[in-house]
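INFO batch 0412 | record 1 of 1 | parsing
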Amino acid sequence: MLYPVAWALSYGGNVIQPDSEAVFFGVLDLSFFVILGAIFLFFTKGVDFSAHGIATLGSPVLHRSSYINPTSSSATKEAALDRHSGETA
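INFO prediction complete | emitting tokens
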């Protein structure tokens, strides 16, 4: 909420000097990043990021077995997994 005030005092109204403007925006930026970091740490406190590893980032992993009909027999499933590219059933 203080960014519009800082803009109005510096660029909008030319009330404060450029050095004061830089300090004002610097303090606002530092406090914003500290507060934003604290918010992220607070809301991600109970999240387990190591459950699936960094590589997956929560995306689903599709295995070959997910493409096979679950009602077929185990022999058919094994035969389907052993086929090479280009072969037909």
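INFO post-check: The chain has four helices and no strands.
INFO record closed
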